[in-house]
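Narrative summary of target 7.
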Amino acid sequence: QVQLVESGGGLVQPGGSLRLSCTASGRMIKINDMGWYRQAPGKQRELVAIVTSGGSTNYADSLKGRFTVSRDNAKNTVYLQMISLKPEDTAVYHCYCNTRGGYDYWGQGTQVTVSS
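Modeled conformation, tokenized:
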């Protein structure tokens, strides 16, 4: 089992920035992809960004240029830097990883609220 714990969410004004972090712990086997999904009220969970163990990234098209995903493999941690935040970015942001054997893990989520 792998546990994912997110931090860094909160309330921010439109145009502001936030940095989310997520650290994996527990039975540590090889982690392949790490990244972030989000779910807004009344909507389905959607991809935000993924980074592979080799550093390749994949973003939701609508978020390119404002969101940056990165990871520190030595710390089993993935980050999400968000700038120029908009009210429509308000959502619960869930950390994600998959491991050797094809197992997917999710964090509990951290709330990001963009409001004046």
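The radius of gyration is 14 Å.
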